[in-house]
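Record passed on here:
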Amino acid sequence: RRRLGLSFLQLLTLKSQLLRFHRICTQQSDFQEAKKILFSTLSTRGYCRTFLRKVNRTFLEDKPIKVTSQLPLVMLYSPHMLGYIRGVKENFQTLVQTTKILTDHEVLAAYRRNKNLKDYLVKAKLRPTIRTKSKDLGQFFKHKRWIYNVFSDTVYLTRTKGTARTSNCVYLITCKTCQKMYVGETKNTLLVRFTQHRYNILRRKGTNTHLVQHFLIHGWQSVTATVLESNSDWTAQQRKWAERLWIMRLDTAHPGGLNEAKPRAVSSS
C-alpha cells in the first residue's frame, strides 16, 4: 500500500514536470531533448521504463470531470479507520444497487487533522483585556498638581502624577458640590478602592462614617479624586503614617473635612 502511494506521488510529480517542460519549450525539439535528459536521469535512479512510457503517453490527457455528488465522511485520520471506510463504501454501493436511489452520489473520506498541543495552547485571538469603561474613570479621577482647601485656606503640591491605576498610595476625595475633602490610603489601585467607596455609598453601607453620610446627600456624581502621594515600597504602617500627615496638612478632619476627628487605623485595602 505504501509502495502504491509512492508510485502515485511519483506519477503526479513527473507529470507536473513534463507539463512544465511542455509550456516553457517553444520548439518541439527542445521539449524532446529536455524529456530525454529527464527520463535518462530517472532510469539510472531505478524508475521503470514501463512507468516512464505510461507517463509520457498520458501527461497531456485531461482528467475526466466527475459529475457525481460526493457525500463526505468526515473523521480523524487513523490507519485503523481504513477498513471502516472501505466497509461504508461497499455498503453504500450495495444500497444504491438494490434501491436505485442516490445513484449519482459517492462516499468520500474527508480526514481532518488531530489536535496537537499547539492547537490547545495557541489561540488565534487574544483574550480581551479587562478594561474599565472610560466613563467610570472620568467620573471620579482628575489629576491635580496643586491642592487648595477653601476651608483652611491651605495649598499643597502633590508629590506624584498618579492615575486611577496607581497603587500603594494616599489619595484625596473632593466633593464637587461643596469642596469638602477626605484623605484616604490604599494598597490596591485607586480604581479598586473607589469601587468599594461607590458600593458603600450606593448601597448605604458604613453610614456611620462622615464620608458615606456626606455623599448620600450630595450623590456619587459629586465625587472627584486625585493621588497625593505614592510609593511602591511603602509598608502598611508607612502608608497610614503618610495618610495622617496629609490629613493634618490639608486639615480634612471633621467638621472642616470628611475624615474622622481622630484618624483611626484604617484597614489596608
In short: Confidence is low (pLDDT under 50) at residues 1-6, 265-269. The first strand starts at residue 69 and ends at 76. The chain has three domains: 2-58, 69-121, 134-250. The first helix runs from residue 2 to 24.
